[in-house]
Write a structure and sequence with these properties.
Blueprint: H1 6-24, H2 45-59, H3 65-74, H4 80-93
Helix pairs in contact: 1-4
């Protein structure tokens, strides 16, 4: 299991916010932790998959989409905070996220 430091959490948050701003064509300053990634930003599940691939490359993670998908059935992503939290868990636990 990897450790989440404040620096890593901030880096993950910035990566996610920058990605959503670019892909959804929204000014980054308009995105908050309370923003709904689907309803307010226009995001979709394909974007989430692409973001997993970006994070996997950036942080050298080996995570299966099925593991993340099973976890998300228990923890839906209603806010950007939820998205950041799940990516921190992916970083920490990898495929073991399914056991949380």
């Amino acid at each position: 299991m990897r450790t989440i430091t404040e620096e890593i959490r901030n880096d993950i948050e910035n990566m996610i916010f920058d990605y959503y701003a670019e892909e959804c064509e929204v000014d980054r300053s308009e995105i908050t932790m309370q923003s709904n990634p689907q309803e307010e930003l226009g995001g979709d599940s394909l974007m989430f998959v692409e973001l997993i691939e970006l994070a996997s490359d950036k942080y050298n993670l080996d995570v299966k989409l099925q593991s993340v998908g099973k976890y998300m059935l228990k923890a839906p992503l209603n806010t950007m905070k939820d998205v950041v939290d799940v990516f921190c868990k992916i970083y920490q636990y990898g495929n073991d996220i399914v056991n949380l």
